[in-house]
Structure formats: structure tokens, C-alpha cells
Amino acid sequence: MADVSPTLLWIRRDLRLSDHAALSAAVARGGPVIPVFVRDHTVDALGAAPKWRLEQGLEAFIAALEEKGSRLILRAGPAREVIPELVRETGAGAVYWQRAYDPASVARDTDVKSDLRAAEIAAESFSGHLLFEPWSVETKQGAYYKVYSPYWRAVKDREVAAPVAAPAKIPVPRDWPESAALADWHLGAAMNRGATVLSGHVLPGEAAAQARLGTFMRDGVAEYGERRDRLDQQGTSRMSEYLSLGEISPARCWHAGLRAQAEGKAGAGKFLSELAWREFAYHLMWHTPHILEENWREEWRAFPWKEDRRLREVRLWEQARTGMAVVDAALREMYVTGYMHNRARMIVASYLTKHLMVHWRIGQAWFDDCLIDWDPAANAMGWQWVAGCGPDAAPYFRVFNPETQAEKFDPEGAYRRTWIAEGQAQPPQSALDYFAAVPRSWQLDPAAEYPAPVVSAQEGRAAALAAYEQREF
Ligand SMILES: Cc1cc2nc3c(=O)[nH]c(=O)nc-3n(C[C@H](O)[C@H](O)[C@H](O)COP(=O)(O)OP(=O)(O)OC[C@H]3O[C@@H](n4cnc5c(N)ncnc54)[C@H](O)[C@@H]3O)c2cc1C
């Protein structure tokens, strides 16, 4: 039998070996498999924390490949040049990858695919980042969904293929092409001194992802419905950073949820419906990519949001010194851990877009820079949902009152004490870590007096509602 030519396995945000359709297909094709990661414009465009987290993920993924006797070839440059170059160097007859759905990746992948096919190289993309391809969910009229509840009804009983195991063996080439060294890329450089603090909160890699899912299914999912909104408890799965980099497949999470449901664990249904929120975000980004940059409802362009990032209130919000304790606690949690509780995301987003009347894009950009679970679709949808200009959004007149939110979801103040050092005789390490992570140029001091609110809960609400009532749309 003639030797089968190598397959390039183009790795992107899918840093796992199990339940990886492109990898399984590459192994099944029969020839050597050459995994490659390209540092292109989509990687260079990442914010500081997501880029740092990517480096961590790549390190873990390289180790997992090496355990199987394989490697990850690293190259930098436009994928449209790098991939054909590697095809020539290795004599590859096929290039396989898992689909991405953001407009920049879609445009890139379309070009790469058509170039390869024109050169008679088998170029195939596979699903795996999502449960349901965005174009496969349609209303009865053949349109896309703009509202979550009917979307959920349309997908909740769909068959999702069970996750498949990692291949026992990954065939290797006789000669490996040259690779850059990950450390030379300095992907974490923009984190500066924050990286040391952040690294204490991150366990990258597929094995860690599966272990965390297992722990949540054993100990957390039953009470997920009651605990998921509590800021002072660890009541959610914390799967988001792993899903963001594809260190775990959504299908694995979905099947774990189905099993928990079959075992009668009460919160499992809610968990499945939250996974579907992620799908809905991708559905929206695919059908209306302007959600990433523009008000999803065009009429909101006329709304008098402030757009100048240099404004004092923006600086205070970014530096977590608004004087509104629950808002500052949440922003500090994100700065120290790269993660923020979902309820807290809604509270800080509402405070910025309503109390401070600042454009959601400014908050979105801050999250782009700070979140290790950064996801283009979920972040854009989350911001537009809170701001009131998105699909199926919370109405603008629904203004989260940060004080009552704190009373309800952090009744003893434990969350606020965890993250705010000022005013505590012996602040916990978590609260002090914020001061170790922020740039020195901010000149923050944990012993300083905690600031008065930049805008009080009542004044902010009144101003926001007045602007809303005066709008001309
Ligand atoms: C302003 C704002 C910005 C956000 N930015 C991001 C982001 O950049 N990346 C991100 O992954 N999520 C984002 N979210 C959604 C949500 O806050 C996180 O997915 C969730 O907090 C992650 O924690 P978890 O994994 O413990 O979630 P769990 O409660 O355990 O939920 C399980 C999974 O369901 C998905 N999910 C849950 N809630 C949502 C939601 N509202 N929208 C989309 N998917 C959801 C996530 O993949 C999550 O990992 C944002 C929400 C808001 C309001």
C-alpha cells in the first residue's frame, strides 16, 4: 500500500486531544499527523489576560502531545501564507481544523480553504467548538432566533454526539518541520507583574478541565440552581476558561449534564440551559456579526453614552475604585483571578452603562483585556444584554441597584471583604493581591481610605432613567 501523505492538523482554540473531530479524522486518514499552531493576527489581537492564558494552554497542550510522542509546530505569520508553506515543506496532502465562528477567523479560514483546494489539497473543517452549528437552528420561517427562550426550546432535545476518547496513538512524521519556541513569543508579556498573581488562580489543560467538570458534577451541580447567583459561594462550574480555549468540548459538558439529570440532580437542567446561552451567543454572532462592535439595535446609536475612555469615572471603574463596594470587589476579582462571577458581571456592566452612562464598548474592551475566559460572542452578548441595546436584552429601565444586589447575593459581605482591602484591619491575601497585580503607576495603597461612591445608587439610577425617557427612539 502506498504511503499516505501527512495531514496538517491546524490547532486554534481547541487545545485538547479527546472529542476532537479534526484530530480523529486526521488519524483515521492514515498518514502522519503534524499538529501546527499559527500565531496570526487573531492571536496578536487578543487582550493581555486572554493572550497570557493562551500561552498557559499551549504549554499544557504541548506537554499532552509530547506524552503521546507527538509535537506542536509553532509558526508566526498570516495563516494564508504559513499553512501553504508548511504544506510544501512537509508534503502534506490534507489540512484539517475545527471551525471558529468570529468574523475575522471565518474570513481567514474561507481564504485558506479556497487556496488549498485550488492547489488540490484536501482542506476540511470540523465542528466541535459548539454543540449546534449556528446555521442549523432555524425558526419555522427559516430565520435565526433573536430571543433565547424559543432558541432553547428548539435545541434542548437535540441529539448531541457523545464525546470520543483521545486517539491511542498519533502517527508522527519521519522528519518534523522546524518550530518556533513558545517562550520566544512572549504571549504573556502584556500582563506585566499581574502574571505572577494570576498564575496562582489558573490550572490550564485538558486534564484539569475534565477534573474540574468531574468535581462540579459530583459536588456542585445538584445545588447549582440555588447557588449559582451567590457571589459569596463557589456555586458554578467554572468551565468557561476551558470552553473558551477548547480544553474541554461543550459536548463533554453537555453529556455530563445529561447524566446528572438522569441521576436526579436538580440543578443539571439549569446547567444545560446555561450551556445553551453560550450557543445562543454564537448563533447571534454568526447571524449578526455586528453584535461585536455596534449596538445590535441600531436605534441605540442615538443614545447619549459617553465614549471617552479618559474620563475620570471610566478610570475609577477600571481601577475598581468607584466607591460602590460590590462593583469594586467584582472588578478586583477579575483583575486578580482573570474571572468574574456572572452576577457580578451584570452588576458592574449595569453600573458602567447606566449609573455612569458610559458606552458598553468601553466595558467590553476592558473585559477583552482582563478575562481569562474571554469569549468574543459571550462577552459582546453579555454587554449588550445588560446595556439594553442587544437582542433579548434586559430593558434599559431595569437598572441593577448595586446595594440591593449586594444585600441579596452577598448577604454577609464575605465577597466584598475577600476583594476589598481598604478599611480592614487585617485584609485577606486575596484583597492585597489586587495591589500586587495592578500597574505601579496607578499608585494604589491598601491602607488608603476607601473612596466615596463616584455616583450613588439613587442618583445614577435617576440620571439613567431620565436619559432613557428623553431618548428619541
Ligand atoms: C457583561 C458580561 C460579559 C461576559 N463575558 C463573558 C466572556 O467573555 N466569556 C464567557 O465565557 N462568558 C462571559 N459571560 C457569561 C458568563 O458570565 C460566564 O460564562 C460565566 O460566568 C462563566 O462561569 P462558569 O463557567 O462558572 O459558568 P456556569 O454558570 O457554570 O455555566 C456553565 C457554562 O455555560 C456558559 N454560560 C453561562 N452563562 C452564560 C451567559 N450568560 N452567556 C454565555 N454563556 C454562558 C459558559 O460557557 C459557562 O462556562 C459574560 C456575561 C456578562 C453579563
UniProtKB/TrEMBL annotation:
Gene3D superfamilies: 1.25.40.80, DNA Cyclobutane Dipyrimidine Photolyase, subunit A, domain 3, HUPs. Keywords: Chromophore, FAD, Flavoprotein. SUPFAM superfamilies: Cryptochrome/photolyase FAD-binding domain, Cryptochrome/photolyase, N-terminal domain. Its cofactor is (6R)-5,10-methylene-5,6,7,8-tetrahydrofolate; FAD. It comes from the Bacteria. The keyword Flavoprotein applies. Pfam families: DNA_photolyase, FAD_binding_7. Residues 5-131 form the Photolyase/cryptochrome alpha/beta domain. Belongs to the DNA photolyase family. This is Deoxyribodipyrimidine photo-lyase.
